[in-house]
Each structure stands twice: as C-alpha cells, then as structure tokens.
Amino acid sequence: MQKVVLITGASSGIGKEIAKLFLQKGYRLILSGRNERGFEEFKSKPQVEIILGDITQKETRERLVQVVKKHHRLDILVNNAGISFIQPVERNTEEQLDQIIETNLKAPMLLTQALYPIMKDQNFGTIVFMNSAAGKLGYPNHTLYSTTKFGLNGFAQSLRLEAKRQGVRVISVHPGGVKTNLYEKVKEKPDISGYMEAEKVADFVVYLAETEGLSPDEVSISRMSK
User: Fold this and answer.
1) H or E element in which residue 65 lies
2) Please, what sign has the CA dihedral across residues 74, 78, 83, 84?
3) Which residue in 50, 72, 121, 190 has its CB near the most CB atoms, within 10 A?
4) Where do the DSSP E strands lie in 70-226?
5) Nearest alpha-carbon partner for 173 in 225, 222, 107
6) What's the CA gap between 222 and 146, in Å, rounded?
C-alpha cells in the first residue's frame, strides 16, 4: 500500500523541499499551505492533494484530518509551518504574541492531537516537528520565536514518551539558520548569506523520517564553519 505523508507549510522553504523528495520516493502527499503559487509544480501530480488554508484555522485542520482518514493511514506527519518576529523585546506586541503562538505552537499541537489516534491505532508512524536551534537556546531579538519553539519542544518530549509505547516515533529537528522566506517580512533582517540550504536540510529530514527501528528523538543541524 502506498505510504502517506502530510506536510504543513509545504508551499515554500524546507516544507516544499521535503515534499519534492517524498514525491520522488513515491509517497502519496497531503500538502498544506497558504501560498497557492507555491504549489504550482505539484498540481498536475495525481498522488498529491493540496489543502489551501491557514493552519491556525480549525476548518483547515479538520479538512486535513478528513483527507488522511480517506486513505486509512498516515505514515509521516511533518509539522513545518511557522512564522517569526525578530526584534528587540520592547517592540513585541500582544498581537504578535498571539499570532506566533497560534502558528508555531497551538496549530501543530492541535493537528498532531487530531492525527495521533490514527497512528496509535495502526501501531506505527513518525511525527516530525521542524523546530529550531532557537528552541534549545535563546538568541537576541528572538524572544517571541524562542518562546514558541521551546514550548513545541516540551510538547514533543512529552508526546514522545507516550507515543513510543504505541510504536510511533516523535522527532524534533533543530536546524540553525536556513535560507528560506521566513525572514522576508521581519524588520530586523539577519544576514542569511552563510545560512544552510533548505534542500540539504530537507534531505536530512526525509532520511530521519524514513529510518526504521531507530528513534532519533532530537536532532540538531548546524552549518560547517569555514
């Protein structure tokens, strides 16, 4: 039976590169994202189903769950969607705090909670949380972002202890800086010229997700210094 993978934030960046790799490997893909143009190369593929929408919205998550249930299995869930605000703490607003918690923390928690019973019943599956180095270590001007990523790591650590007993793996991936559009809308733009390529990070994530019999748990990825 064809394996099924669901990827959020799949219209750009690491999520899109992960989707390309799983497509090459013959998976059935369920992709979620807000940018319709980012899915152009997938639209003609019969094994790809695209759910356009905001992952923070309950309706979007429910549509994803219904598509998964139609296939009666879920092999891999990649929680990749995320946003960032990079700025001094005094510039943070309550609106930004609400927005980043909804996207980076609440949405992946609720989507995972809704899909976990499927993996539990089938006694296999892999849940990947695309976290960040900022989910293990604080960085200047990353107070909002790090808060959500630390929270997500706590959720993953606790879920991992429950899921292992059911044959389900929970992997947190913590890359350092990656060249993606995550930084396009931030006011304090970092120099990303030396950051890692999304394609290389995606290749490693797919490798981890497909490796059977081992549970990588938490994996940090950093670039080689010259």
Assistant:
1) helix 58-71
2) positive
3) 50
4) 76-79, 125-130, 168-175, 178-179, 196-197, 218-221
5) 222
6) 17
pTM above threshold 0.90: yes
Residue among 145, 183, 195, 207 flagged as catalytic: 145
**Cα 192 from chain centre:** 20
Answer yes or no: is pLDDT of 55 > 70.
Answer: yes
Closest-CA residue to 210 (of 125, 147, 148):
125
> Going from the N-terminus, what domains does the chain have, and what CATH number goes with each?
4-221 (3.40.50.720)
Find all residues with CB under 8 Å of 24, minimum gap 6, and list them: none
The predicted-structure confidence for 67-102, as pLDDT tens digits, reads as follows: 999 999 999 999 999 999 999 999 999 999 999 999
Count how many residues are written for the chain: 226
Those residues whose C-beta lies under 8 Å from the C-beta of residue 173, and which sit 6 or more positions away, are: 128, 129, 130, 131, 201, 204, 205, 208, 219, 221
In the residue annotation, 27 being an active-site residue is answered as no
Give residue-wise pLDDT tens across range 175-226. Answer: 988 867 666 665 666 666 677 889 999 999 999 999 988 888 999 988 866 5
Q: Quick one: pLDDT at residue 71?
A: 97
Within 8 A by CB and 6+ apart from 55, the residues are 8, 9, 32, 61, 81, 103, 107, 108, 111
| Calpha distance 109→77 (Å, rounded) | 12
Phi, psi of 179 (to 5 degrees): -75, 95
